[in-house]
Write a structure and sequence with these properties.
The structure holds two protein chains of two kinds. By secondary structure, chain A is of the alpha/beta class. Chain A contains 18 helices and seven strands. Chain A has two domains: 213 residues, no CATH class; 157 residues, 3-Layer(aba) Sandwich (Oxidized Rhodanese, domain 1), CATH 3.40.250.10. Classes of the chains: A alpha/beta, B mainly alpha.
Chain lengths: 398, 171
């Protein structure tokens, strides 16, 4: 499950990855013609819409790709950097950049690309951008207010607009295709002839067809996450799925035995978890089971994954969800945490044991009721010293 | 040999989109460019005026977000890659030429002034807007960031707004 950094690809190797990504990025920018200011500003005077075509195609491709990877559970979006929104700095900064674009004929990425093939004007542009950074850095106290005002956090645009992700993505794709179509007429009017690049019609049609198929399949499919969450909240669905149960005694035994092969997924509220949590347990919600942290643990081999919650029914939801996500060795704590507290942690002998097995059970539970609270306390102290170990969102952006 | 033709824009865009998608999948972040200028600038300031950067507010905030040597930054490596990649592309397409390009209707002086001032504005705007066309607009669009899309609209909207006044420089 992505992102691959930092587990699969270490932080040091990531720099090498950056180099190679940069090579690919620079190569494509140059091949697309972004190394000449004439082609870049053509967008603003109507004689060459290459920038719009490349930019929108790239944006839509990546957007659909990201949605698809998220949809199929291959990318944990909660770990992906989403540029934070600061309303006024985005607008004012953007307008200044727009002015810089028509005056300078480049943007930072394209200027680097153009300078690399020997464009002196691009080198001057880069020099200018150093000055721009300098003015911002030295005058920062002056701009700080504007820079920090109206912070909305890492919001996503469809949330801001109050629509679904699929609808927004669909609308953006339609706008992009509409713009591709409309700008050919503008180009024709301004240049007096059809852009000769428009001769490879077959290629366009096939690429468009592929894009449409991908787009439709991505948008037509109901959101997998929502779909699964709805399903597991339906009691009928839960009862129709068999899950293996683990008794409170077995769980207690495994905890006392310091069984390295069990992992406990605690679905209780965070506050309940914080006040009392079992060793080898982590706190999750049904939502966070989709994320990379849970994913990493659940995909470990030869582990027994025990789902616990206040009651058995809630734990079943998590267990069925994990099964539907393709994980195995899933167990549910029989009777839930309430039962576990009654049977083990706060165990009181209910009366005289009649049979041998009852006697054994009572003996075990009495012992467990002494040992487990100690283990819980130990675990709490260990956790305190090690701190939280949650995977963090990367810091990206310019 | 003549310069080769540019790549079909839709094909180039498709490849660029795949590169961006791979970047997000592998690293969890998008592409960028202007951030590298900031890193290099910070290093230059620190080496010319040692100790200065640890006092000014701007550098302190930068240091909080990017611990360690500013040059050991993802975007710095990426931009070095961009230089290499663009050079290779220029080499195989016969476009390597040291030239100051300007519109036939305009002069060298105007182009130099325009590039310098334009670069300055873009550099400043990218700091204020937290990213440029790559880091904010393109990468922001891929992850549907509200801020990224607002910045994108403002960049292109602004460019259209001001284009008329600078038409003599280009057409």
């Amino acid at each position: 499950m992505g992102p691959l950094v930092p587990e699969v690809i270490g932080n040091e190797l990531n720099f090498i990855v950056a180099l190679f990504i940069g090579i690919a990025f620079g190569f494509i920018l140059e091949q697309a013609g972004f190394s000449t200011s004439k082609k870049l500003v053509g967008l603003f005077y109507g004689y060459d819409f290459t920038v719009l075509r490349v930019f929108f195609t790239a944006g839509v491709t990546a957007m659909i790709g990201v949605i698809a990877l998220d949809h199929w559970g291959l990318l944990d979006m909660s770990l992906v950097y989403v540029n934070p929104t600061f309303l006024w700095s985005a607008i004012v900064g953007g307008l200044i950049m727009g002015l810089g674009f028509v005056v300078g004929g480049f943007c930072p990425g394209t200027s680097v690309c153009a300078a690399a093939i020997g464009k002196i004007d691009a080198m001057i542009f880069i020099g200018g951008s150093f000055l721009g950074v300098m003015i911002f850095a030295e005058g920062y106290p002056l701009f700080e207010h504007l820079y920090m005002s109206d912070a909305w956090g890492n919001v996503k645009v469809f949330e801001s607009l109050g629509m679904s992700q699929s609808l927004f993505a669909f609308l953006l794709t339609v706008i992009a295709v509409g713009a591709f179509w409309a700008t050919t007429f503008v180009e024709k009017k301004v240049n007096g002839e059809l852009n000769p690049e428009f001769n490879h019609k077959k290629l366009y049609y096939s690429l468009t067809a592929i894009a449409v198929v991908i787009a439709i399949s991505a948008f037509a499919l109901p959101d997998r996450k929502e779909n699964l969450l709805n399903k597991v909240n339906d009691e009928k669905f839960i009862t129709s799925n068999e899950v293996k149960l683990m008794t409170t005694d077995e769980l207690a035994f495994r905890i006392i035995d310091d069984d390295k092969n069990i992992q406990i997924f605690d679905l209780r509220a965070k506050k309940d978890f914080d006040s009392l949590n079992l060793p080898k347990s982590n706190n999750y919600t049904l939502e966070s089971l989709f994320e990379k942290d849970a994913n990493k643990l659940l995909s470990l081999k030869n582990k027994k994954n025990v789902f616990i919650a206040d009651d058995e029914q809630t734990a079943r939801k998590g267990a069925v969800l994990a099964l539907k996500l393709g994980f195995t060795d899933i167990y549910v704590l029989q009777g839930g945490m309430e039962q576990f507290k009654k049977d083990i942690i706060y165990f009181k002998i209910p009366g005289i044991a009649n049979t041998q097995s009852e006697k054994d059970t009572y003996r075990f539970r009495t012992k467990a009721s002494n040992v487990i609270p100690m283990l819980i306390q130990e675990n709490k102290e260990k956790h305190k010293s090690s701190g939280e170990n949650k995977t963090k969102r990367v810091v990206g952006g310019c | 040999m003549n310069e080769k033709k540019f790549m079909n824009p839709y094909l180039a865009g498709f490849f660029l989109g795949l590169i961006l998608l791979a970047t997000i999948y592998i690293t969890g972040r998008g592409l960028g460019a202007s951030g590298a200028v900031k890193s290099v600038y910070t290093v230059v300031v620190e080496s010319v005026f040692p100790g200065y950067t640890s006092n000014a507010l701007y550098y302190q905030e930068y240091g909080k977000e990017h611990p360690g040597n500013p040059l050991k930054n993802w975007l710095v490596f990426e931009v070095i890659g961009v230089i290499i990649g663009a050079f290779i592309s220029g080499l195989i397409s016969n476009r390597l030429k040291l030239i100051l390009e300007h519109s036939p209707k305009s002069t060298v002086k105007v182009r130099i002034a325009g590039a310098l001032i334009g670069g300055l504005l873009f550099g400043f705007g990218a700091q204020l807007g937290r990213g440029c066309t790559s880091g904010a607009a393109l990468s922001g669009m891929a992850v549907l960031s509200t801020g990224g899309l607002i910045t994108m609209a403002a960049i292109f909207g602004g460019a259209y707004l001001f284009a008329y006044f600078f038409r003599k420089m280009w057409i």
